[in-house]
Amino acid sequence: MVEEQLIPRGINNQKVLDALSRIERHKFIPENLKKSAYADFPLPIGEGQTISQPYIVALMTQYLGLAGKERVLEVGTGSGYQTAILAELAREIYSVERYDALANKAETVLNELGYKNIKIKVGDGSLGWQEAGPFDRIIITAASPNVPEPLIEQLTDNGKLILPLGGGFGQVLTLIEKKGDKIKTTDICGCVFVPLVGKYGVPN
Ligand code: SAM
To answer: Which end of the chain is more exposed for a tag (fewer CB within 10 A), N or C?
Structure first.
C-alpha cells in the first residue's frame, strides 16, 4: 500500500509513511471486506458511511504538518483508522462521530490497540468540541458546503484545518490556515466524501 499507492503519488513525510506502514488497517474494516483492507479505494463501514482511501488519509495527514505536540480535533471518527494515524503523530486527539454504533466500534478497536491519547464523543461535530478546544489542528473527514464557523473559532492562532469543501458529488480538499484575524485558503485536489450532516454542514 505504502510503496504502490502513497510514495508514487507524492506522500513523502516519513512519519506519515511510517504510521501508515505500522497501523494494521484491516483491524478497522468489517469482517467481510478484510481482503480489500489495503486496496486503493474507500470501503463501507456500516451506517452508509465509508473508511477513506489510504492515499486520501495520508494526504490529509501530511497537510496537517504534525510535529508531535498538537491537540487535534477530528470530525467524523468513522472506523477510527484516521484517528489512529493522528494518535501516532500528535499529542491528544479529540474525535466526534454522529453515529454511536460507529463511535463505539472505533473506540473498542482503538482501546484494543492500546491508544491512551484519544477521546471520542458522539454528537454533531460541525459544532466542534467547545470544552476541549482550542485545537492546533482540525481535520473534517466529511464534506461540507462551507467551513463550519465554530471550527474556525476553535482553531488556535497559526492553526490548520483541512476538509473536503463542497456539496453533492464532488468536493475540493481544502487547507485553511489561521494567522491572527486572517484566513488563508489553499485548494489541494478534487475528492469525494460522504456529507457532514449537522447544524453547520448539510442540514439533516
Ligand atoms: N476518517 C474515517 C475513517 O478513517 O474511517 C472516515 C470518515 S467517513 C468518510 C465520515 C464520517 O463522518 C462518517 O462516519 C459520518 O458518520 C461522520 N459524520 C458526518 N457528519 C458528521 C457530524 N456532523 N459530526 C460527526 N461526524 C459526522
So the answer is: C
Mutate to test the pocket of ligand 1, among 23, 95, 196, 202 (most ligand atoms within 8 A of CB): 196
Rounded to an integer, the average pLDDT of 176-184 is 95
pLDDT at 188: 98
pLDDT tens, position by position, 90-112 = 999 999 999 999 999 999 999 99
All structural domains of the chain with their residue ranges: 2-191
Binning pLDDT at 50, 70 and 90, where does residue 119 land?
A: very high
Give yes or no for residue 76 CB within 6 A of ligand 1: yes
Distance in Å, CA 167 to ligand 1 centroid: 15
Instruction: Encode pLDDT of 191-202 as tens digits.
Output: 999 999 999 999
pTM above threshold 0.85: yes
CATH class assigned to 2-191:
alpha beta
For the question of residue 52 being annotated catalytic, the response is yes
Rounded-to-integer distance, Cα 105 and Cα 100, Å? 8
